[in-house]
């Protein structure tokens, strides 16, 4: 999987600072064209700089700070990293983005640092901390804290979301039923997601494949109301 190879390349570069395509191909037991594709992907994320025959670390403070965190995120969930890499392609510079308090959105955050001048509005407490690590412009919804999932909900959160016009909203849910409904066990969180959908130009569900065919008691919306579902 390219996600795993990219993680290995970053680990090698952190140690060596400069590597050649031949060195990486030998170390990772892959072809040189595969190495070049991985390097192209990493350069697009502003993590490395390609040079003739190889690559060096991108020598910016942002890159230096991001890489250790990004490696850690890769290690914790390769499936969510795959979803995040697909989602990041939908984001443009200067976008305003809604993120819910789901772990799927949390894993998207390290990738957001590759985009310039974005603003994130979120009701996720863990997300707020992670966004601060990457110095991403962030607005908290405020609201009542749900201790079990560290989500902010309620009227104050609704009022904040209502004040913003987002370009894109990302969120998750517990499951997608066989008849196509996004379902969850937390009505308060679903209400936040509904508000985000209403105040955003586009809405995307971040969803691991294991959630398909699972239904819970509270409906968020039907899949046909979304602009897309992103899964690994």
Helix content: 40-55%
Secondary-structure class = alpha/beta
**Radius of gyration, rounded?**
19 Å
Question: Which strand order does the major sheet show?
Answer: 6-5-4-9-12-14
Annotation, overall tally of beta strands: 14
Number of helices: 10
Order of helices and strands: HEHHEEHHEHHEHEEEHEEEHEEE
Kindly report how far apart the N and C termini lie. Answer: 11 Å
The overall pLDDT average reads 90
Tell me about the biggest sheet? 6 strands, parallel
Q: Low-confidence stretches at least 5 residues in length (pLDDT < 50)? A: none
* Outline: elongated
> What portion of the residues fall into strands of 2 or more residues?
15-25%
